[in-house]
Amino acid sequence: MSGAGLEIFALIQIVSIMPLWYLHGFQRAVCMLRAIVFIGLILGLISVVVFSTGLLKTTDNAAPVRDQPVCDLLAGPCEWRTEAGLWKVGLQVMVGEGQGAQYQLTVHAPTVQERFLAVLRGESMYMGEYPVPLRQGQKGQYSANFTAPLCTTGAEMVWRVDLQQGQNTLSEAVPLKLVFQSGNH
Q1: pTM (2 decimals)?
Q2: DSSP letters along the chain, please?
Q3: Residue 14, Cβ neighbours under 10 Å: how many?
Q4: Contacts for 164-173: CB closer than 8 Å, 24+ residues apart
Q5: Dist CA 46 CA 52 (whole Å)
Q6: What is the pLDDT of residues 107-159, one digit of tens each?
C-alpha cells in the first residue's frame, strides 16, 4: 500500500475520508428535497383542479343551457305568461335587406323594467355579445332599433335575443329561446 493515497481507497470505498455525519446530512438533504418536490407537485395539482373548475364556468349572462322552445321573432311576435302578467316580444325589419338590415325590437312587459337590455348573441356561431338598450315608451312598452353585426363566413346568421335587467338575465321570466335569422328576408 505504499504510494497509494487515501483518496484511491476512498474511491473504491475501502476507507472513507468523509466523516459519517457529513454523509448522513447529505442523505437527509436529498430526502428533504424529494419531500419538498413531492409536496409541491401535490399542491400544484390541487390548485390546477380548483382553478380550472372556476375557469370552465362561462362568464356570460346567458340563460343556463336547457331545452327551451324556440320562437322565431321574424315569423311573428312571441308571447308568454308569467305570474306578473303577459310578455310580448316582436321584431320587424325596418330598412334594408340581408345582413345590413335595420331591425326594431319591441317588448311589452307586464311590469316596469329598469336598465332593460336585449343582448344579441350568436346562436349558429359565437360572435360575441352585443347589448342593445331598450327605451321605455308607453306603459310597459320598450323598443330599440339596431343592426345585427355582420357575419363574414355566411349570408345567414341566427341570432338569439336574451332579455336582461342590468347585468341580471331574465331567464326565469323568459321560457322561450328568442331567435331571428339575419340574411335574405
Answers
A1: 0.59
A2: -TT--HHHHHHTTSS--S-HHHHHHHHHHHHHHHHHHHHHHHHHHHHHHHHHHHHHS--S-PPPS----EEETTTS-EEEE-SS-EEEEEEEEEE-SBTT-EEEEEEE-SS--SSEEEEEEESSS---EEEEEPEE-STTEEEEEEEPPP-SS-S-EEEEEEEEETTEE-TTT--SEEEEEEB--
A3: 9
A4: 164/61, 164/116, 164/117, 164/118, 164/119, 164/131, 165/113, 165/114, 165/115, 165/116, 165/117, 166/114, 166/115, 166/117, 167/61, 168/61, 169/61, 169/62, 169/63, 171/63, 171/64, 173/82, 173/84, 173/87
A5: 10
A6: 998 888 888 899 998 888 888 889 999 999 888 899 999 888 777 666 678 88
Looking at the structure, tell me whether residues 84 and 142 fall in a common domain.
yes
For residues 113 and 46, membership in a common domain is answered with: no
Domain that holds residue 11: 6-56
Whether 63 is in a domain gets the answer no
Count other C-beta atoms under 10 Å from residue 81's C-beta: 10
